[in-house]
Amino acid sequence: MSDVQVVDAERAGGFPCVVAALDVGGTKIAGALVRYAASDTAPVVEARRAVPTKAARGGAAVLETLSALAGELVAAGATDGQAVVGVGVGTAGRVDARTGSIAYANEIMPGWTGQPVAAHLREVLGLPVAVLNDVQAHALGEARWGAAQGADTCLMVAAGTGLGGAIIAHGRVLRGAHGFAGEVGHTLSPDAAGVRCVCGGTSHLESVASGSGIEERYRAAGGEALSGAEIAERAAAGDELARQVIELAGSSLGEAIAGWASMLDPELVVLAGSVLNAGPLWRDALHEGYARQTPETLRSLPLVDAQLKGDAPLIGAAENLLDFLGARD
Amino acid sequence: MSDVQVVDAERAGGFPCVVAALDVGGTKIAGALVRYAASDTAPVVEARRAVPTKAARGGAAVLETLSALAGELVAAGATDGQAVVGVGVGTAGRVDARTGSIAYANEIMPGWTGQPVAAHLREVLGLPVAVLNDVQAHALGEARWGAAQGADTCLMVAAGTGLGGAIIAHGRVLRGAHGFAGEVGHTLSPDAAGVRCVCGGTSHLESVASGSGIEERYRAAGGEALSGAEIAERAAAGDELARQVIELAGSSLGEAIAGWASMLDPELVVLAGSVLNAGPLWRDALHEGYARQTPETLRSLPLVDAQLKGDAPLIGAAENLLDFLGARD
């Protein structure tokens, strides 16, 4: 399926160039100019800014906020004397790869579902626009200029409140048929046997390995209602129940990574998200779980942490726009 | 990682053309000419032939047999007045995507590991050669001219003696970092909890959903030592133990497909392999398992049977050669 988000836009390519990049989350919308001196030099992220998403005001209002911020960036680029070649957006929710509209967003962003992000920005700004999911953007940023630089095949696992991910295949982010590719959280896990998942299925990895899964497992086992970070602190301090929950989160994820690695044969796996801060108990369990389930041939697969932090989704959104323009073909 | 199997070969492309295609299995080596009238018309498979692999004679002897058969096909093509543009090979075992050598083959083909298939055929025949795993070849054939024609993202699941698979991403077969991509059999399955897998891990899907898994589960539950086909017959005839084993094979595979679909967001899933003949009990359990674990958005994902039968790996091997030559760029 070809990407026809902006079917009649001029598909200009070439370097040097500047892209307006935006990252839409539930609490804030971040934006920046991503400046490329050449195709093979690391982009410079500049003119950073951020505004509150005010998600409760609804999807149409969020789209106006996004549009205004994108307009500011385009204007800032023009002031610098180098016209912005297009707008790259990474956003929470599932993005229709064909239209650049929001196919689905959860209750954190009411009314974001259905918003025609690419079409609206293009109409307002008169520039090519490419939109993808924020985790996919993060992975693409890391694959081009971060922890997975130059990787042709790569899996990113994002363990935060939920458990998401993204796949790089043939050097490009895998969007899938509907733009949903990379949702690793609904992989079956024997460690989650019988636990109901938010998606409606049962025994899914997200129920034990995500931040919210850690919190729920701790409560279900008789612990208090604490945040994942607090549970990790207690585990480090010797709380036996907390230790069990944190270690299960690590080992179940490590075991699942072995299965995904066997399936995708990636050059490396990039780990991202707040759960990475759960400490050495979690990390040791992750590596032990991986080693337990992976075949000999994949034992030395690098499992590395993401490098680009908050810039990754912006750089990835910019790279997706460059792919869309054919600038990297 | 770029494919450098034949770094200095002339990368001729263009249609019409004829490719010599070969499919190396543990019992026979099949070969044919795959003839293309144009880039967008279905290829014609002709001049079919097959010889015994005689795997016990060792890898070097198998390579000579393969080389002789490939030479016959090239000569046959020349006789017809249209020179063969190159040789496409699909083979049992894992193929190093960079060199076209056999990275690993199991005991069914002793000494096949390490054989420099691409380099040897190229030296003998003086033609470009591209080699890939036989399941990957099968999937590529189906994706280009069979059940998944035109698919950009597709998963093929091959349930035979073992449980394998292949992934089509961005319209091309995903080789992965070492050429191993698509090995879905080592996905964790709650239904296989605690069962030791041949790979060294535990709780892997292959132990319950493959043909050998069906046979072992039946024996482990107190049944006789029967073939998978015999167990399926008994299940259909009302044998309760056989029914349980066959239904578990179907439902565990269906549940796993839901996880893979969530991860890859394919346009469809293609099913192949002898286990597809296990009958309606197996098939109903497969679809029920899938429905139980898949999110609403993927409920209507087509799960379809492969169409091209024995021609699929040959057509896929030919398509891989065309990709290698850049003929489909």
From TrEMBL, chains A, B:
InterPro entries: ATPase_NBD (IPR043129), ROK (IPR000600). It comes from the Bacteria. PANTHER family: BIFUNCTIONAL UDP-N-ACETYLGLUCOSAMINE 2-EPIMERASE_N-ACETYLMANNOSAMINE KINASE, ROK (REPRESSOR, ORF, KINASE) FAMILY. Belongs to the ROK (NagC/XylR) family. This is ROK family protein. The lineage of its organism: Bacteria, Bacillati, Actinomycetota, Coriobacteriia, Eggerthellales.
